[in-house]
Design brief:
The protein is built from 17 helices and 12 strands. The chain is globular and about 65 Å long. Bound molecules: NADPH dihydro-nicotinamide-adenine-dinucleotide phosphate.
Length: about 450
């Protein structure tokens, strides 16, 4: 798997220590493969055991979350927080509520987050959390009681200078609000301990839109610098119509593209003239309904109950924004056969290794998640800055900063890809650029963890 003996040794140990955790192993393998050339020129990392430390979380907390449902029955879920790496700042990363959440998924997300946060240029370490609680179909009261119980334990481990969680799948403004309220009640302090807060109590403008907008700004940089092109006139597919996907649809449309296909767990929708973003927001975000319901309101839209069929539709740009491993090698082949020109990952690790390999072999520019979707956490970093300053910046101000950060991430990742002898390979570029800052901070701080 690796030519380098050090990498083989580290990865073998990771496999031994983390059996039955395929997502975590997949994420570690991808990063280690990218570092191969760079590590050969820098023996100081091996001499100081940097990789051995990087692949082991500083702390992993697992806890019971008991709550009472509307029928008066006691329910028990499992909660997690992984505090992966604090070399460059307090742990930072979202909380996911989804029935699939387990230790492997939380660790893969926390590991990725370490490099992503480093790429933003802001002082944030890597963390992630969540629960196997499924918010689907729960009443507002049940969501509130669950969030309060979850935070009762989590509050012992987080804080504005220690660990600052945010949202992710299944955790939006409502859930962040309930968790923030409970933290404040337990600690009797009003601090920026969570990001993604409502605007009336410390949230930042643009945070809601940031991951989807940032994804399009990053894609724009690739188009401009690697293809001498733009979004103008392009046909775009976006999977997942949650927080990331919906605002990716909005920004791509604003930049002159036509979003011809969207999806969620109910299926996918094809609409050649372009989707109506305002209606989509109304159906998905306000009414909490499905793309199936959106399609029923659009006479020229076609609905397919298999969401994977999205990738069979012709497009110029694909933006997978749903979940890990949602796009496999076969999907990639279908997209390539249909003439795709660019793929940018909005979700975390949405493409399987076989899909990434297929795009790269076909010479299709590929924007990896830890660079392309870093706009969300970057804007969370800006929310932390505003909380510390006791100030609120305007929409235009935050949006401008977000654009600058995404441009900077592209430039750093591209330069690192050139330095490693693989110009334009942004998987290698993002991993190396993210790694160097964290690894050098760990070297400077000695064997602290
Ligand atoms: P949401 O819960 O808001 O939305 C997820 C969307 O994906 C929903 O529309 C859901 O369908 C859909 N979905 C889930 N599984 C599938 C599937 N197998 N096929 C098609 N659609 C599916 O989550 P977010 O938008 O916040 O997060 C999406 C991804 O982006 C995750 O990987 C997350 O880690 C990543 N991310 C999120 C950030 C953020 O700021 N929120 C920041 C960086 C990364 P339905 O609506 O029917 O449930």
């Amino acid at each position: 798997m690796f030519k380098n003996e050090y990498l083989t040794r580290v990865y073998t140990q990771v496999e031994k220590r983390n059996p039955g955790e395929p997502e975590f192993l997949q994420a570690v393998q991808e990063v280690l493969e990218s570092l191969e050339t760079y590590l050969e020129k820098h023996p100081e990392y091996e001499a100081n055991g940097i990789l051995e430390r990087l692949v082991e979380p500083e702390r992993m907390i697992q806890f019971r979350v008991s709550w009472v449902d509307d029928a008066g029955k006691v329910q028990v879920n499992r909660g997690y927080r992984v505090q992966f790496n604090s070399a460059i700042g307090p742990y930072k990363g979202g909380i996911r509520f989804h029935s699939s959440v387990n230790a492997s998924i939380i660790k893969f997300l926390g590991f990725e987050q370490t490099f992503k946060n480093s790429l933003t240029g802001l002082p944030m370490g890597g963390g992630k959390g969540g629960s196997d609680f499924d918010p689907m179909g729960k009443s507002d009261g049940e969501i509130m009681r669950f969030c309060q119980s979850f935070m009762t334990e989590l509050s012992k481990h987080i804080g504005q200078f220690t660990d600052v969680p945010a949202g992710d799948i299944g955790v939006g403004a409502r859930e962040v609000g309930y968790m923030f309220g409970q933290y404040k009640r337990l600690r009797n302090e009003f601090t920026g301990v969570l990001t993604g807060k409502g605007l009336s109590y410390g949230g930042s403008l643009v945070r809601t839109e940031a991951t989807g907008y940032g994804l399009c700004y990053f894609a724009q940089e690739i188009l401009k610098n690697m293809c001498s092109d733009s979004f103008e006139g392009k046909k775009v597919l976006v999977s997942g119509t949650g927080n990331v996907g919906t605002f990716a649809c909005e920004k791509a449309t604003q930049l002159g593209a036509t979003v011809v296909g969207i999806s969620d767990i109910s299926g996918c929708v094809y609409e050649p003239e372009g989707i109506d973003v305002e209606l989509l927001k109304q159906v998905k975000m306000k009414e909490r309904k499905l793309v199936k319901d959106y399609a029923a309101l659009r006479p020229n839209a076609t609905f397919d109950p298999d969401c994977r069929n999205l990738w069979k539709m012709p497009c110029d740009i694909a933006l997978p924004c749903a979940t890990q491993n949602e796009l496999d090698g076969e999907d990639a082949k279908a997209l390539i056969a249909n003439g795709i020109k660019l793929l940018c990952e909005g979700a975390n690790m949405p493409c399987t290794p076989q899909a990434v390999q297929a795009f790269q072999s076909a010479g299709i520019p590929f924007g990896p998640a830890k660079a392309a979707n870093a706009g969300g956490v970057a804007t969370s970093g800006l929310e932390m800055s505003q909380n510390s300053l006791r100030l609120s910046w305007s929409f235009a101000e935050v949006d401008e900063k977000l654009k600058g950060i995404m441009k900077g991430i592209f430039e750093n990742a591209y330069k690192a890809s050139e330095d490693c002898g693989v110009p334009g390979n942004l998987v290698v570029g993002a991993n190396v650029a993210g790694f160097v800052k964290v690894a050098d901070a760990m070297l400077a701080q000695g064997v602290a963890y």
